[in-house]
Design a protein that fits this description.
The complex is a heterodimer of chains A (553) and B (309).
Chain A lengths: L1 H21 L11 H9 L1 E5 L15 H10 L4 E3 L7 E3 L2 E6 L5 E6 L13 H12 L17 H6 L10 E5 L2 E5 L7 H4 L10 H6 L22 E7 L3 E6 L13 E5 L4 H9 L14 H7 L4 E14 L9 H9 L3 H9 L4 E2 L21 H10 L11 E6 L2 H18 L3 E6 L1 H9 L5 E7 L6 H4 L16 H12 L3 H18 L2 E12 L4 E2 L15 E2 L8
Parallel strand pairs in A: 1-10, 13-14, 13-15
Antiparallel strand pairs in A: 2-3, 4-5, 5-7, 6-7, 8-9, 9-10, 11-15, 11-16, 12-16, 17-18
Chain B lengths: L1 H28 L13 H10 L6 H13 L14 H36 L4 H15 L2 H15 L20 H27 L2 H8 L4 H13 L1 H15 L3 H6 L5 H10 L3 H29 L6
Helix pairs in contact in B: 1-13, 4-5, 4-7, 4-10, 4-13, 5-7, 6-7, 7-9, 7-10, 10-13, 12-13
The chains are: A alpha+beta (553), B mainly alpha (309).
Chain lengths: 553, 309
């Protein structure tokens, strides 16, 4: 008996103690936007980028989440402009020039550029960084991005062990010469990608060799940055705090004092945190909340164009699917407008080509529309009138509500328009990737987000043997045109060649095109200079906060 | 007694070894690997990474290598958290789940036992039906429904607790652990209430209780002193595993309140095919469950003279 009583007594005591220590420190609890107001007054941006970053080492990073956090701390040769993703502003380089056909570039690094440990940023630092990317044993997932440097691929594959033969050289402390395998007019956009960002050799070598992975250099206190902000704390799965970097060359023009990047994966939790005044910006809005916010709080909703395409890969080695007429028929029988308007509702654009709009002077192609009559005709020509005798196949996608909704809509459209039966199969993410990469599918849900401002980021993946092709589709003519584009110096002529290549792709269609992305999120109106950018690469030094947030009505 | 406890603790070693071995080979069977991504790296890169982490060796070699490292308490690096080891991940995430779990445990016990005793004493009256219906509701209502409801009420309407996050949220009166703990605690309280009621009813019908009543012992003494001792036995058997479950964290509750605890690390490690982290957390949870089962056995022996020898 005594044991029971004392057990319960002890437990109550513990509970009460917990609740007491848990009760807090706040002085004013009347307004839930207290944090927001304080944050605005102190110019601290509260933002979520979705999931927890796996690493903040630019050369080991892969995802968009990582990229957003890295780019506030590490600045590349050039940096994004305030309102146009096709334009750049000086970064580590304060000026640059190139030869006539854009194949040799020289970047002049400003004398006032410093790492956060006080060391000057030199051309040699960039050479070291690119060497690290190209050291095979380091295992950088994006090493391929640097293969446009002359001799880079040979060095990576071990055919040449002398890094001096690779097309990146420090002429002196402040001049970096980059020699490429062919004309690359889009280099300025490319060098903003994580894989082209510099790291401080001193910071890296302090914790290992040039090829040591996963060292502690990315932890707070060890991270050496050259961008507008430096890391203050990193609490995994909760928050990364960055604060103003006093040694940043353009520190006088940095508006914010700090940014808190929260990792909140769950969209409903993001939404609640935003409503509770814990966030200035969410990463996304969940599909079911979009109509509500558009109706009730249009001032908080932002829907920006985003450089991404949603499509189904077609396994072109399967019977019936190997016929381009069938593939075109499948494409023509989809009412993309209906999908975008009724299911997605975030102003996505029905895809009429593969490369989405917003890619500077490259105009998107308008090749596909909803033409059910023509689709039926094509299917009949291919030997399947009204879908008779058409093999049964499966649409395979990773488990997500919106993927299922889209697949169900397409399933129904094909059934009604073409008389074709398809089944749906969802798989857990890694299993789905495995199925797609091993070509063990008929139709596989896919998406592609552009890395830089050039159509090549969308078109090069469809060349023969490319690791991301995964459709068995191969066209020597297409390969030749992509190759030709890589040798064409004039930007206009180059886009002409790429247009021809995309025309071929769209006439053979190893994919079912669905829509072009938008980026929908909630943003407090007190956030200034957050302009819509097609890659979503904001230069955080321009972002500002009004001193008083408007309360949510 | 001490001998028994020592024996049970020794059993821990083979139990953990079996858990570890089974899990190790299961991770090898599951399709998909840690380095696959929507944008595929080249086969050369994947090969490099596999070599770096020793995943290119034959499975039995990997197994032996892993086992020898584990014996030195080295659980290897996490693939997902690229600058942390498995031990560091558990070391930072477990204390958070532990705090939430202990508070949830106290809430569950206080609410559950009280409701159970009240129901048993008022058998088939309003004060039996009321707590028992509520507890049925508690069992049926999943945490992913209760959590958001509590977050809406206490976070958005009353502004007493944060709706998301753990660190640096000191502008609301309640600590971030309170809401997750209540969500979890109420769920377990419902079970405990039903177990308590069942146990108490059984005891209250026994002869020694009738004797006590005949002797004129006041009713509250009968319930608190005579009946509860035996009536709590089924609850105590449940408490060991329950406590282990509570302090190891709940994926759902941690996601709803965005709390960086161990429960979500465990689930995410499986999604990410982070083999070392899967193994590390499984072994850790295994040890916790074995130890808390032992603790609840010991408490049962202390409460029940019949099982003492």
């Amino acid at each position: 008996m005594k044991t029971v009583i004392s057990l319960i007594g002890a437990l109550s005591l513990v509970a009460v103690l917990f609740c007491l220590t848990a009760t807090g420190t706040a002085s004013d609890t009347s307004s839930y936007s207290l944090t927001l107001r304080e944050a605005n007054r102190n110019k601290i941006l509260l933002i979520t980028v979705g999931s927890e970053p796996r690493t903040l080492d630019p050369q080991a990073a892969q995802g968009v989440t990582e990229h957003h956090i890295i780019m506030v701390m590490i600045e590349g040769l050039v940096a994004p402009s305030i309102d146009d993703q096709a334009k750049v502003v000086p970064g580590m380089a304060d000026r640059w020039e190139h030869n006539d056909d854009y194949s040799v570039w020289t970047f002049h690094i400003g004398g006032d550029r410093k790492w956060s440990n006080g060391d000057p940023v030199t051309a040699e630092d960039f050479v070291f960084s690119y060497k690290r990317m190209l050291t095979a044993s380091f295992g950088a997932q994006y090493a391929e991005n640097l293969f446009i440097l002359k001799g880079a691929e040979d060095y990576y594959n071990g055919r040449n062990r002398n890094f001096d033969d690779v097309g990146v050289k420090a002429i002196d402390d402040h001049s970096l010469r980059i020699e490429l395998v062919g004309p690359t007019p889009y280099l300025l956009s490319l060098v903003q990608h994580d894989s082209w960002l510099p790291v401080s050799p001193k910071a890296i070598l302090k914790f290992g060799n040039i090829d040591t992975r996963d060292t502690k250099w990315t932890r707070p206190g060890n991270y050496v940055a050259n961008g507008p902000f430096i890391m203050k704390s990193w609490r995994p799965n909760d928050v990364i705090e960055v604060v103003r970097n006093p040694l940043y060359w353009d520190a006088a023009n940095v508006k914010l004092n700090g940014i808190n990047f929260y990792s909140i994966e769950n969209l409903n939790t993001q939404d609640r945190a935003f409503q509770a005044g814990q966030l200035h910006k969410t990463d996304q809005i969940s599909l079911d909340k979009v109509p509500y916010y558009r109706r009730m709080h249009p001032e908080l909703v932002r829907i920006d164009p985003y450089e991404g395409a949603y499509f189904y890969r077609i396994n072109t080695s399967r019977k019936a699917l190997n016929d381009p007429r069938v593939r075109l028929a499948l494409n023509l029988a989809i009412d993309r407008d209906a999908i975008v308007k009724n299911i997605l509702r975030e102003d996505q654009k029905p895809a009429t080509g593969f490369t989405p709009p917003g890619m500077g002077d490259y105009k998107p192609l308008n090749k596909l529309a909803y033409e059910p009559e023509r689709a039926r005709q094509l299917l009949a020509e291919a030997g399947y009138p009204k879908g008779k005798g058409f093999p049964k196949f499966t649409i395979h996608f990773n488990t997500l509500e919106s993927h299922r909704a889209i697949a169900e809509a397409i399933q129904q459209m094909w059934k009604e328009e073409l008389g074709i039966d398809v089944t749906l199969e969802n798989q857990e993410w890694k299993v789905y990737l495995d199925t797609q990469n091993s070509m063990n599918y008929d139709l596989s849900r896919s998406a592609w987000i552009g890395d830089f401002m050039d159509p090549v980021t969308f078109l090069s993946m469809w060349t023969t043997g490319n690791g991301n092709n995964n459709t068995h589709w191969s066209s020597p003519k297409y390969d030749a045109l992509i190759e030709q584009a890589a040798r064409t110096g004039g930007p206009k002529a180059r886009f002409e060649v790429l247009h021809q290549a995309e025309e071929i792709f769209l006439s053979e269609l190893p994919v079912v095109l669905v829509y072009w992305y938008t980026n929908a999120y909630l943003l407090q109106p007190s956030v200034q200079n957050w302009d819509p950018l097609v890659l979503g690469n904001h230069n955080y030094k321009y972002i500002d906060l009004k001193s008083e947030p408007e309360p949510i009505k | 007694m001490i001998k028994v406890i020592a024996g049970r603790l020794l059993q821990l070693i083979p139990v953990l070894w079996i858990i570890l071995t089974l899990t190790f080979f299961m991770t090898k069977v599951v399709p998909g690997g840690p380095f696959s991504a929507e944008r595929q790296a080249t086969p050369e890169v994947i090969a490099q990474l596999n070599a770096y982490y020793g995943l290119d060796k034959p499975v039995w070699q990997q197994y032996l290598g892993y086992l020898s490292k584990v014996m030195r308490f080295d659980f290897g690096p996490s693939y997902t958290y690229q600058s942390e080891s498995v031990t560091e991940v558990i070391g930072r995430a477990f204390p958070i789940s532990l705090q939430i779990g202990i508070l949830a445990f106290c809430i569950a016990l206080l609410v559950g036992v009280t409701a159970g005793v009240v129901a048993a004493v008022n058998k088939n009256k309003l004060w039996d039906y009321l707590p028992m219906s509520i507890s049925m509701l508690g069992i049926c209502l999943p945490t992913f429904v209760l959590g958001p409801i509590l977050a809406l009420i206490f976070g958005l309407v009353l502004k007493l607790a944060p709706v998301s996050g753990w660190y640096g949220l000191n502008y609301v009166p309640l600590h971030p652990m309170v809401m997750p703990a209540i969500t979890l605690g109420l769920f377990y309280a419902a079970y405990i209430a039903r177990l308590t009621r069942g146990g108490m009813l059984e005891i209250l019908n026994q002869d020694f209780i009738r004797t006590a009543r005949a002797k004129g012992v006041p009713e509250h003494i009968i319930i608190l002193k005579h009946a509860m001792r035996g009536g709590m036995l089924p609850v105590v058997a449940f408490l060991g595993p329950a406590l282990a479950g509570l302090i190891s964290g709940s994926f759902v509750v941690e996601k709803v309140f965005n709390v960086p605890g161990l429960g979500q690390e465990f689930i995410k490690s499986v999604f990410n095919r982070d083999y070392p982290l899967i193994l590390g957390t499984v072994v850790f949870f295994g040890a916790l469950i074995v130890i808390f089962n032992l603790v609840s056995d010991v408490v049962q022996v202390l409460l029940d003279p019949r099982s003492r020898k």
